[in-house]
Amino acid sequence: MLPTTAPAPPFTLTRASHVVLAVTDLAASRDFYRDVIGLVVTAETDDAVYLRGLEEDAHHSLVLEQATEAKAVCLGLRVRTDADVTAAERHLVATGIEHERVERPHQGPTLRFRDAVGTRVELTSSMDLVPRKMADFHDFRAGAPQRIDHFQAVTHDVRTATEFWTGLGMRTSEYTGQYREDGTDELWGTWMEVKGNTHDLVFTNGRGPRLHHFAYTVPDATSLIHAADVTGSLGLGHEIDRGPGRHGISNALFLYVRDPDQHRIELFTTHYQLIDLESEAIRWDVSDPRRAQQWGMPASERWFFEASEFPGEPVHEPLLHATPPTLEAFLGLH
Asked: Range of 316's domain?
C-alpha cells in the first residue's frame, strides 16, 4: 500500500528551495555553474559562492562551499513562515529527531536535521530578495536555467523515506513498484511534491543516503540542446551524464551534466501540474524502461550507481536488490 499524505501536517512545506554543495575548487565550480550551466552568480566570498536561476528573486538556490572533500552538504526546503520553523522544531523534538538551529547567510530562521533515512535537510522560511533576471535576455547563457525545481536522493529504504515525508504533507505523484507473489507492491522509487507539479523530492532505491541530482527548469527544448552544445564546445562533453531524452515519469525532456567534483545537475523542461486532490498517483512497474526514458538507449552505469554522499553519514546497502538496465549491459560490454 502506498503511504498516504498527512491531511494536517505539523508544519507547512512550500517547495524545494536550495542545495548546498562542498566543492574542492571554488573558482572552477563557480565557472562551471555560471558558464556551462548558465546560473547567475548573486554573491561571492572567499569560501562560498551563491547562485540562482534567472527567474528567482530569492538570493540563492545553489551554495558552493570550499572544502577539502566534495560532499552534498544538505538539501534545502522552504516553509511558509517563521512560525513553521518553530513548529518543525517542536515536531522534531516530539519525534526524537536530532536537529539544530543554524545561522545561514542571506536566510531567515533555518533548521537542520536528518530525515528517517539519513538525508541531510535544511528548512528555512525566507531569504534576502534580489532582482529577477527573467527578462534580461542578453544575460541568458547555456541552458538559461529558470528556477530550482527538485532533488533526487538515493536511499536504502524507499518506503521509510516516503512514509517520513508524506507524514510531513508531501504528496506522491508517481512511483515505481514491483508486485510480490502475495500481491503487495515493493516501492522502488517515489516522486513527491508540495508545490503543485510532479516533484520536489524524489527517493529511488540504491546505496544511500546520497544525493543523485538536483534540477533546474529551462525555457524549452532548444535550451537543452544549447546547453549540450555549450558543454561540448567548452571541452566538457564527456561530462554529459545522460540525455538529451524524455522521461516517462514527469514527461519532461532532460539533460544531466556532472560538475568538476562530479555532483550531478539536471536541466529539464518542467512537467505537468498536480493540484487537484482527487488526482491519483501514477504507478510504473520497475521493469518498464519507459518510466525512465521514453526513447533512446539506457543510462550508463555511472548514472545508476554514482551519487554525492552527505558529510558524516554512513551509506547503507539497499533493502531491495536488482541489476538496472545499464547502457553497458545493453551494448553487451560486460
From this structure: 13-128+142-327
What are 59-76's pLDDT values in tens digits? Answer: 999 999 999 999 999 999
Global confidence as pTM: 0.96
Q: Is residue 6 part of a domain?
A: no
DSSP assignment of 34-49 equals: IIII-PEEEEE-SSEE
Cell of 324: 538496472
Interatomic CA distance for residues 17 and 6, integer angstroms = 21
Cell of 93: 523534538
Identify the CA nearest to 154 among candidates 327, 299, 317: 317
The answer to the question of residue 103 being in a domain is: yes
d(CA 161, CA 107): 26
Burial (CB count <10 Å: 0-12, 13-18, 19+), residue 45: exposed
Rounded mean pLDDT of 155-173? 98
| Structural domain contains residue 259 | yes
Q: How many CB atoms lie within 10 A of CB 269?
A: 20
Domains held by the chain: number: 1
Burial profile 288-327: b = 16 or more Cβ within 10 angstroms, e = fewer: eeebbbeeeebbbebbbeebbbbeebeeeebeeeeeeebb
Q: How far apart are CA 260 and CA 276, in angstroms?
A: 41
For residue 265, which of 283, 239, 232, 284 has the smallest C-alpha distance? 239
In this predicted model, what pLDDT tens digit does every residue of 82-123 receive, in sequence order?
999 999 999 999 999 999 999 999 999 999 999 999 999 999
Hey, which residues does 246 pair with through a beta bridge? 253
CA 135 to each of CA 54, 146, 206, 258: distance values in angstroms, whole numbers, following the listed order:
8, 11, 41, 28
